[in-house]
Recover the amino acids of this structure.
C-alpha cells in the first residue's frame, strides 16, 4: 500500500509540475483533430493512423496512394488526409492548392519525416529552415551561376565518355541489360568530382566503400519513412536499423571529412585555390569560410547535401528519359536527327551552345520528368496555421506535394499515360497551369541545382544517343514507377543497345 501511495504521489506531482505543458499539448492536438477532421481521407485508427492499410510492397503502396488521391480528387477535393501514426499528413490534390503551398513563406521548413537525414546532411540547405535557410540559400546561389556550370561541363563530358566505354564493354557479354546501375555510377562520379573535386571511380571500382555506403543510406532513408515504428528509438535498435544506419553513416561522414581536411590543407599551404584549376563546389565553400560565411560543419553538411541531392535524382532523370525513348522509337529518331545536325561527330564534346540547340531532346527530358519525376513527393512542416484550398491547416501538421500525382492527373494532362514531348512546345506550356509541372518544386524553396541537373542529363543522354540506338521488349507502362526516395523503376531499365552506323 505504501508503495502504491508513493507512485500515486509521484504521478500527481508530475501532473502538477507539467500541467501547463500537458494543457498546451492537449489543446494543440484537439485543434488538429478539429480542423483535420474536416478533410477527407482513408479510415484511420488510433495510434496506427492510416498505416494499418498500407501495402507493404513498393508497387502495391504506389498504386494504393495514387488511387486514394484520385478518389478524393474526383470528388472535387483539393486536399486529403493521411495519418502516419498519430501525425496528420495533408496531401495537396490540385494546382491552385500547390501554388498556395509552394509560394507561401510560412511553409519553408521541411517536415519531420526528413529527420532521418539529419545525422548525415546536418543543417544544410535541404534540411535547414526559417532565417537560416534564407541566409544559406542567398550565400550558395552564386555557386550555381552559369559560369560555374560551364566549368563543370568538362566533368560531364569526361564521365559520359567513361559511361559509353562501360556500356560497350558490357555489350561484348550481352546486348540487353539493366543500364540503371551504370547510370547511377556515372552520376556518382560526376557529383563527387563537381562537389568535392575528388574521384571515387565508381564506374570502375563498383565496390568502393563510399559508393556502397551512399546507396545503403538512401535505402535506409526510404525504410525509415515507410515504417513509423522505426521512429521509436528502442524499436529501431532492436530491429537492427540503428546499427546499420550508424555503420554506413560513419563511412560517408569519414570520407567527406577526409576530403575536406585535404582541401583545407591545400588552401592553407598555397594561400588560395585559384591556381587555374577548375573549382569544385567544396573549393567555393572553403573560400566562403575564409570570408566568415561558413564553419567546418557547415561545409561538411553542404557538401553531403549536394552529394545526396545530386546523385540519385539525376540518375533517375537520365534513366527514365532513356527508357521513354527506348519504348518510343519515333521520338528517339527525332533526337538522333537533331544530334546529327548539332554535332559533327559522335566524339565531339558538348559546348553550352550545343546543349542549347538540343531543343527536341530538352522536350523529351521534360516529358519524362513529367511522367516519372525524379522526386515523387516532398513535404513541409506547418509551423503556423495556414489556409489552403479554403481549409485551415493547423500548426503541427505536415503538407505533402506530389509531383508524381500532379503530373499524372487527368485534370492537368489529357492522355496523361502517353509519352508526348510536344506537351512542352511553347504553345502547350502557355495553356497549362504553371504549378501543374513541378519536377524541381517551385516558389522560394525550389531546387537550387535544377540547371546543373538539366545540363548533366542533357550531356549524358546526348553522348548515349549519339553512339547507340536503344530499344526494349518491355512495354513502357509495364515498368512501374516506385515512389521511394526517388522514382525507382520496378524492373530497372532493361535496354538493348546497338551501335549506330
Amino acid at each position: 500500500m505504501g508503495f502504491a501511495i508513493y507512485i500515486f504521489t509521484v504521478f500527481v506531482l508530475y501532473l502538477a509540475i507539467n500541467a501547463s505543458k500537458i494543457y498546451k499539448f492537449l489543446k494543440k492536438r484537439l485543434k488538429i483533430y478539429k480542423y483535420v477532421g474536416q478533410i477527407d481521407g482513408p479510415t484511420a485508427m488510433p495510434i496506427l493512423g492510416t498505416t494499418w492499410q498500407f501495402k507493404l510492397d513498393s508497387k502495391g503502396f504506389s498504386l494504393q496512394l495514387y488511387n486514394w488521391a484520385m478518389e478524393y480528387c474526383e470528388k472535387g477535393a483539393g486536399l486529403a488526409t493521411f495519418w502516419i501514426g498519430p501525425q496528420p499528413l495533408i496531401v495537396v490534390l490540385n494546382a491552385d492548392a500547390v501554388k498556395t503551398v509552394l509560394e507561401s513563406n510560412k511553409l519553408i521548413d521541411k517536415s519531420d519525416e526528413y529527420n532521418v537525414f539529419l545525422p548525415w546532411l546536418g543543417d544544410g540547405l535541404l534540411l535547414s529552415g526559417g532565417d537560416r535557410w534564407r541566409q544559406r540559400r542567398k550565400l550558395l546561389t552564386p555557386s550555381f551561376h552559369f559560369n560555374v556550370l560551364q566549368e563543370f561541363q568538362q566533368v560531364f563530358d569526361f564521365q559520359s565518355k567513361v559511361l559509353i566505354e562501360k556500356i560497350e564493354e558490357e555489350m561484348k557479354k550481352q546486348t540487353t541489360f539493366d543500364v540503371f546501375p551504370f547510370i547511377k555510377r556515372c552520376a556518382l562520379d560526376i557529383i563527387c568530382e563537381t562537389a568535392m573535386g575528388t574521384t571515387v571511380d565508381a564506374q570502375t571500382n563498383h565496390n568502393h566503400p563510399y559508393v556502397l555506403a551512399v546507396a545503403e543510406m538512401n535505402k535506409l532513408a526510404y525504410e525509415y519513412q515507410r515504417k513509423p515504428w522505426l521512429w521509436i528509438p528502442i524499436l529501431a535498435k532492436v530491429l537492427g536499423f540503428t546499427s546499420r544506419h550508424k555503420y554506413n553513416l560513419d563511412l560517408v561522414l569519414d570520407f567527406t571529412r577526409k576530403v575536406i581536411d585535404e582541401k583545407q590543407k591545400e588552401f592553407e599551404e598555397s594561400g588560395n585555390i585559384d591556381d587555374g584549376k577548375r573549382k569544385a563546389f567544396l573549393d567555393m565553400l572553403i573560400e566562403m569560410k575564409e570570408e566568415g560565411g561558413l564553419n567546418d560543419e557547415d561545409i561538411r553538411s553542404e557538401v553531403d547535401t549536394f552529394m545526396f541531392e545530386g546523385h540519385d535524382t539525376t540518375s533517375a532523370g537520365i534513366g527514365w528519359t532513356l527508357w521513354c525513348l527506348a519504348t518510343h522509337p519515333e521520338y528517339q529518331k527525332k533526337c538522333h536527327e537533331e544530334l546529327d545536325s548539332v554535332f559533327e561527330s559522335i566524339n565531339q564534346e558538348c559546348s553550352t551552345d550545343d546543349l542549347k540547340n538540343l531543343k527536341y531532346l530538352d522536350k523529351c527530358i521534360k516529358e519524362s520528368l513529367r511522367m516519372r519525376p525524379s522526386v515523387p513527393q516532398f513535404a513541409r512542416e506547418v509551423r503556423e496555421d495556414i489556409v489552403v484550398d479554403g481549409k485551415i491547416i493547423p500548426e503541427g501538421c505536415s503538407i505533402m506535394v506530389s509531383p508524381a500525382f500532379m503530373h499524372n492527373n487527368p485534370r492537368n494532362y489529357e492522355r496523361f499515360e502517353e509519352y508526348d514531348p510536344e506537351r512542352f512546345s511553347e504553345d502547350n506550356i502557355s495553356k497549362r497551369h504553371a504549378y501543374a509541372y513541378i519536377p524541381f518544386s517551385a516558389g522560394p524553396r525550389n531546387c537550387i541545382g535544377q540547371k546543373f541537373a538539366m545540363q548533366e542529363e542533357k550531356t549524358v543522354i546526348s553522348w548515349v544517343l549519339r553512339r547507340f540506338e536503344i530499344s526494349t521488349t518491355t512495354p513502357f507502362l509495364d515498368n512501374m514507377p516506385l515512389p521511394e526516395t526517388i522514382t525507382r523503376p520496378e524492373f530497372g531499365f532493361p535496354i538493348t543497345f546497338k551501335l549506330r552506323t
